Amino acid sequence: MEEFRDIIQALTTHQVNGILIGGVAGALRGAHRPTRDVDWLYRRDPSNYAKIVEAVAPLSPYLRGAPPGLPFCFDEKTIAAGGNFTLTTTAGDLDLLATIAGGDYESLLDHSDLMRVFDCECRVLNLTTLIRVKRAAGRPKDFEAIAELERILEELDDE
Predict the structure, then answer these.
(1) Contact call for residues 64 and 86 (beta carbons, < 8 A)
(2) Euclidean distance between CA atoms 118 and 5, whole angstroms
(3) For each successive 10 residues of the chain (159 residues), what is the average pLDDT?
(4) pTM of this prediction?
(5) Strands of the sheet with 92-97, listed across from one edge
(6) What angle do CA 115, 139, 98 make, to 5 degrees?
(7) Whole-number Å distance between alpha carbons of 144 and 25
(8) What is the distance in angstroms between the CA of the first residue and the CA of the last residue of the chain?
(9) Helices 127-137 and 140-158: angle between axes, nearest 10 degrees
(10) Partners of 87 in beta bridges
(11) Residue 100 in 3-state DSSP?
């Protein structure tokens, strides 16, 4: 997970309102499955768009999978007009997500906990909700992850 340090520190240092979800959240909850990106569910709000740009622009974001040279301007207007962005950056891959199959920032905020990650404090989706949103996504890779996450949840319930 060390490879995600710069992205997570950038988002938290700039106080971007968001929740870590996906594989990184799973790893922080005890999962061992590898992940290739940071999934950040962000709050849709103009002041938050400015924080996102301040945090991510220095990392040279570009649309993941887009042909090289395709014009892409990562600014507040782009974020407001879009929603979900799969980006490659100089610090690794980042999925900036306005909504996921299980909800959005506002609906999932109460299902997250503050955790210390790389000497920063950020919100991380709780284990029960992580399982629920992965199930809602319905992708084969999510179903594989669910089995491990459910085992971790059972172990925690046994304590």
Answers:
(1) yes
(2) 6
(3) 92 98 95 94 98 98 94 97 97 98 96 95 97 92 90 84
(4) 0.93
(5) 62-63, 85-89, 92-97, 37-42, 18-21, 120-125, 112-117
(6) 50
(7) 15
(8) 26
(9) 160
(10) 63, 94
(11) strand
